[in-house]
Amino acid sequence: MVHPLADVKAIYVPESTNIWQFCVIFPNAQIGYNCNICANVLIENDVIVGNNVTIKSGVQLWDGVVVEDNVFIGPNVTFTNDLIPRSKVYSKSILRTILKRGASIGANSTIIAGKIIGEYAFVGAGSVVTTNIPANTVWYGNPARQHGYITNDGILLDMDCRGQDGNQYKLERI
Length: 174
Known about the structure:
Blueprint: E1 7-8, E2 18-19, E3 24-25, E4 30-31, E5 36-37, E6 42-43, E7 48-49, E8 54-55, E9 60-61, E10 65-67, E11 72-73, E12 78-79, E13 97-99, E14 104-105, E15 110-111, E16 116-117, E17 122-123, E18 128-129, E19 137-140, E20 145-150, E21 156-157
Parallel strand pairs: 1-3, 2-5, 3-6, 4-7, 5-8, 6-9, 7-10, 8-11, 10-13, 11-14, 12-15, 13-16, 14-17, 15-18, 17-19
Antiparallel strand pairs: 19-20, 20-21
């Protein structure tokens, strides 16, 4: 479903994907199945969005962003693609930012260009990500720092891999 007030130029958008009002999607953007792209999202040409992705309102995915399957991007998350931006000066090489399968990015976070967010990693709201984030880890703050771990099922763990219930967990991807 593409809302009639969206400007979608992408060659192919699966029927199972919802694109809401005031979205702008460039012609060469690749959009997966069963995605929910909320209002006021912009997706440039050199962007790949996997399957089962949720992109909340106010997000811009600039050239070079790759979003794998089952990723959640909260409202107003900001991505960059140029480490030294200048007006009317265009970088010859765009840095790739990759959000691996199952990652979640909290509202109003900023992801600096060229970073990799690992599988099932969790970035808390308002964080500024200046480094790569390993799989199954929890990061937040400015700059974002690791504060724990998270299971693939979304159970938050402390730095000793203990859940709030006191149980010890073993993570395969650490």
